[in-house]
């Protein structure tokens, strides 16, 4: 038989192994003959097994070896023996084999694939085992060895961002990312070369183990505009030097604006010097643009009540507002042209000598953030801080593709730094200037939805109190899925593995982004449960949303104590889980939480001290469900076999009154084959639809999912011959 190599060959070999394993494990079930099955002739008593290929391979820990493990079985006359049953088993170093069992073909050959264990063991071993057909003696007939490759010490550099634009007389910050490998954890010394005269690059501290080193690029006022490559070099003792190129663009200084011209994103200072004074400002806008104008007095004056008016190119007044301390207008532009903005005091007799600040935002378009103000680009998943002063609005932007799922939250910062009537207000403007959403609330304002078009979105934040004069610190967060989320220092998020529990905390208006990988057809269960009661406010309510790799929300739940979602992966890729607090007016709930994932099929990685693992027929397994907990178990079954799974509540002080143990059984393809729950004992009986490893997800099925208690789990009809990559209990 000719065995093809490469990916296609591996696929065919694996398919053959699966078919041979199924033939071995289905026993005496009556079925139509399998044209691919190898007949089982009379096997001689004395056989010998030779290693054909795959011995003493070298590969990285946790990775599949490049060559399969191949053996050949012959009789006393060196003739091939067909139909001989062999088992492949890892006995040293950890790891797993793909099938675990094989029957020799007409040439006496059999094979399996070996994935090395996670440990960097010097030698890992797989034994090939067989049972003597005459004596039933258990024998080890061959042993394969493998060595774990050890990567050489070293490091690599990257710049974030890799290109940056700085105007003469200004500076900007970048980060040099140091990725270490091969056990190297020492200090890396950084230097820069190639910068033009007048450009200074300075690096922050880079202690051993540091993953990111801050760098500042300062451009003197006289540096000529242009693009300059700067080489950043890293040195670490005897290791080879590494370098990365940072592209610096020195931008030409902008021409000075005409008198009274407004720049989007900036605060413009003005002063009413005399009674009856009217200040005039102007801006250019295109039809369909969305504009926000806000004016606030610089110091409290009972006589000065700001009066703001917007006048179109034809001289017609389009909008106006007046307030005790601030005034604000927002609207879509009806026609392209130059627009006039006037600022005056409502009372023409107002006392002179009053300062004011005028904010202007035009979207779409570019925006500038003035000194002492806040705004800029929102990084997916990160926390961004700002402060709203009287009459202030800040402008942030982000890019999104059509169909992306968007979650934007603005929340009060420290309560001591916020006025009593400060109410976060978000306006989201699309790439074409359309107002997507305007939302406000007492403590936190949040938007959830899908991007309708591809482009740059503008987020305008301020306060929604009457008069617009409230002030306060705030935090704004964006979660965009799909996409890589950045976790800010002190915040939580990241990848969740199968059967893993991750801890987090929801602050006021907080959004945490978690991810997990799934293949099409995988079944998953996710929970978000309250943490310690002392960490919670009374109105904290766990809230989960699950977004698939295309940006579609596929599941959501909110609960008083636990939120739980179940679903099946429609596409292969990375799924995003957004954790927040829901239910309450103002979304003011805060508290610690735990998020847990159970996924099938797939090998679980439960935390230490948790329950779960591989089950065998007739053995009673004990476990405990805490609030929002999920335990993952598995067993092997043969197609057509009758299987019964039972779960029973253990009475006693460890169980809450509403503890209702339940099971969800998932077949090897990800289909739920049976569910069962009961306050005392539940039984799930079924006929196995296919051969392979079945997953049992244990939870409390009470209405709020917040019950806890001990349980006993058993299975009958499982097949011990089905080898899975799951841990033993």
List keywords for this structure.
Immunoglobulin-like, 3% helix, 1 helix, 5-stranded mixed β-sheet, globular, Jelly Rolls, 729 residues, disordered C terminus, mainly beta, single chain
Structure overview:
The strands form 13 sheets. The protein has a 5-stranded mixed sheet with strand order 2-10-9-4-6. A hairpin with a 6-residue loop joins strand 9 and strand 10 (138-148). The chain has 1 helix and 53 strands. The longest helix has 20 residues, at 6-25. It is an all-beta fold. Residues 1-41 and 725-729 have low confidence and may be disordered. The protein folds into 5 domains: 6-148, Sandwich (Immunoglobulin-like), CATH 2.60.40; 154-250, Immunoglobulin-like (Sandwich); 258-472, Jelly Rolls (Sandwich), CATH 2.60.120; 492-600, Jelly Rolls (Sandwich); 605-716, Jelly Rolls (Sandwich), CATH 2.60.120.
Which helices and strands, and how do they pair?
Elements: H1 6-25, E1 48-53, E2 57-59, E3 69-74, E4 85-92, E5 96-97, E6 101-103, E7 109-112, E8 114-115, E9 124-131, E10 138-148, E11 154-160, E12 163-166, E13 171-181, E14 189-193, E15 199-203, E16 212-219, E17 226-235, E18 242-250, E19 267-272, E20 278-285, E21 290-297, E22 306-311, E23 317-322, E24 326-332, E25 337-345, E26 354-363, E27 375-377, E28 383-388, E29 394-400, E30 405-412, E31 424-429, E32 435-440, E33 444-450, E34 455-463, E35 472-481, E36 494-495, E37 501-506, E38 512-518, E39 523-530, E40 542-547, E41 553-558, E42 562-568, E43 573-581, E44 591-600, E45 612-614, E46 621-625, E47 631-637, E48 642-649, E49 661-666, E50 672-677, E51 681-687, E52 692-700, E53 709-716
Parallel strand pairs: 2-10, 12-18, 27-29, 36-38, 45-47
Antiparallel strand pairs: 1-3, 3-7, 4-6, 4-9, 5-8, 9-10, 11-13, 13-16, 14-17, 15-16, 17-18, 19-26, 20-25, 21-24, 21-26, 22-23, 22-25, 28-35, 29-34, 30-33, 30-35, 31-32, 31-34, 37-44, 38-43, 39-42, 39-44, 40-41, 40-43, 46-53, 47-52, 48-51, 48-53, 49-50, 49-52
């Amino acid at each position: 038989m000719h065995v093809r190599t490469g990916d296609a060959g591996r696929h065919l070999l694996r398919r053959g192994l699966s078919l041979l394993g199924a033939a071995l494990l289905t026993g005496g079930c009556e079925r139509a003959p399998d044209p691919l099955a190898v007949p089982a002739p009379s096997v001689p008593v004395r056989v010998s097994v030779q290693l054909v290929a795959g011995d003493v391979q070298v590969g990285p820990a946790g990775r599949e070896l490049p060559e399969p493990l191949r053996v050949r079985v012959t009789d006393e006359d060196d003739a091939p023996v067909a139909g001989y049953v062999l088992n492949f088993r890892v006995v040293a170093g950890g790891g797993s084999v793909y099938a675990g069992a094989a029957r020799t073909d007409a040439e006496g050959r059999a094979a399996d694939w070996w994935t090395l264990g996670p440990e960097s063991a010097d030698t890992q071993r797989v034994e090939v085992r067989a049972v003597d057909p005459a004596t039933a003696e258990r024998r080890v007939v061959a042993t394969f060895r493998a060595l774990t490759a050890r990567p050489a010490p070293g490091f690599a550099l990257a710049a974030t961002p890799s290109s940056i634009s700085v105007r003469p007389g200004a500076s900007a910050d970048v980060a040099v990312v140091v990725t270490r490998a091969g056990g190297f954890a020492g200090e890396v010394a950084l230097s820069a070369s190639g910068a033009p005269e007048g450009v200074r690059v300075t690096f922050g501290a880079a202690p051993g183990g540091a993953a990111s080193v801050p760098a500042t690029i300062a451009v003197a006022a006289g540096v000529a505009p242009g693009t300059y490559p700067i080489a950043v070099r890293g040195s670490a003792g005897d290791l080879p030097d590494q370098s990365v190129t940072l592209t610096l663009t020195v931008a030409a200084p902008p021409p000075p604006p005409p008198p009274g011209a407004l720049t989007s994103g900036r605060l413009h200072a003005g002063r009413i010097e005399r009674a009856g004074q009217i200040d005039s400002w102007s801006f250019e806008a295109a039809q369909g643009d969305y504009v926000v104008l806000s004016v606030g007095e610089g110091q409290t004056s009972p006589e000065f009540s700001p009066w703001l008016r917007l006048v179109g190119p034809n001289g017609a007044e389009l909008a106006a507002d007046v307030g005790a301390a601030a005034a604000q207008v927002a609207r879509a532009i009806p026609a392209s042209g130059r627009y006039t903005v006037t600022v005056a005091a409502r009372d023409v007799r107002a006392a002179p000598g009053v300062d004011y600040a005028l904010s202007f935002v035009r979207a779409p378009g570019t925006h500038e953030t003035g000194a002492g103000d806040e705004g800029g680009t929102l990084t997916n998943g990160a926390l961004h801080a700002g402060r709203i002063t009287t009459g202030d609005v800040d402008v942030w932007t982000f890019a999104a593709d059509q169909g992306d799922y968007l979650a934007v939250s603005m929340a009060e910062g420290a309560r001591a730094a916020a006025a009593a009537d400060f109410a976060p207000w978000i306006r989201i403007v699309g790439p074409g200037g359309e107002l997507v959403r305007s939302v406000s609330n007492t403590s936190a304002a949040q938007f959830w939805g899908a991007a309708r078009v591809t482009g740059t979105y503008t987020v305008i934040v301020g306060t929604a109190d009457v008069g617009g004069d409230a002030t306060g610190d705030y935090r704004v967060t964006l979660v965009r899925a799909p996409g890589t989320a950045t976790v800010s220092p002190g915040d939580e998020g990241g990848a969740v593995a199968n059967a893993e529990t991750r801890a987090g905390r929801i602050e006021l208006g907080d959004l945490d982004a978690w991810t997990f990988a799934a293949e099409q057809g995988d079944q998953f269960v996710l929970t978000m449960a309250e943490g310690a009661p002392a960490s919670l406010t009374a109105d904290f309510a766990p809230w989960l949303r699950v977004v698939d790799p295309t940006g579609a929300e596929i599941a959501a739940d909110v609960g008083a104590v636990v939120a739980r979602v179940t679903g099946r992966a429609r596409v292969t890729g990375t799924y995003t889980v957004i954790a927040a607090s829901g239910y309450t007016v103002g979304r003011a709930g805060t508290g610690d939480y735990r998020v847990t994932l159970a996924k099938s099929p797939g090998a679980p990685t439960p935390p230490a001290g948790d329950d779960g693992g591989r089950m065998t027929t007739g053995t009673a397994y004990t476990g405990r469900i805490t609030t929002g907990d999920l335990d993952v178990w598995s067993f092997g079954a043969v197609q057509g076999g009758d299987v019964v799974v039972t779960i029973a509540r253990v009475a006693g002080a460890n169980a809450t009154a509403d503890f209702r143990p339940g099971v969800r059984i998932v077949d090897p393809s990800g289909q739920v084959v049976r569910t069962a729950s009961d306050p005392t004992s539940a039984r799930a009986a079924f006929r196995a639809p296919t051969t392979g490893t079945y997953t049992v997800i244990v939870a409390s099925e009470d209405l709020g999912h917040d019950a806890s208690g001990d349980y006993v789990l058993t299975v009958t009809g499982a097949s011990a011959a089905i080898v899975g990559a799951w841990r033993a209990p």
